[in-house]
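Write out this protein's structure.
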Amino acid sequence: MDQPGRTSAAGSPVVNRPPALGADAFARLAVELHHAGGVEETVDTVVQFALQAEACSYAGAVLAVRGSHEVAAVTAPLVTKLYELQFDLGEGPMLTALTEGVVVRVPEVASETRWPLWAQRLPSERFGSALHVPMYAGAQLVGVLSLFNTEPHAFSADDEAIAHILARHASVAVASARDGETMAAAVDARKLVGQAMGILMERFDLDEPRAFEILKRYSQEHNLKLRDVAQELIDTRRLRGRGGE
């Protein structure tokens, strides 16, 4: 097997590539993603799979979250450093992929000039090349999948095609996981409100509409979410008004 650091007869780096993965491998990935427990577990499954499917030394993923971004998974501490550096500087290849929604290749880090501040501030444990692929769920950009190699010119057109497949799997799974978490949160909120209404109905002999109206009015007057009002009532058995209990 070729090892990183060697050169071919033509003088170009020889990259250690994993064996080609077939449809069965991606089918197993789909099953693993289906059984992942949440968004973080979902993304971690993808970046770990990338180490098997791609010519990469380490991988990571950043998710777009309510107008901001968060590091969702990494396979090496260096990836976290590279992400945080770009967040601090406001520039870099991953940020370009995330803000513009385009694939960004870094064929050779040592000769990169598109992000001068980023190039100057890279950590001492440098890498040779990188590939950043946007993750779309429909028309919505949900994040970026990042692949890194210790050698320059490591990623071929085939590697990029596989990266797109991985990014697509990740995008669908993340969107599904987020929907599931949102639905679970909504169900939980409904349960809390129902319990709080039951407390008011029992204590003050109210019917359901009147109990719900009290919770709703308290929520509006104190600028609190209805779920938080219900939780307060369940925990303390009271609601504090402007003039007292």
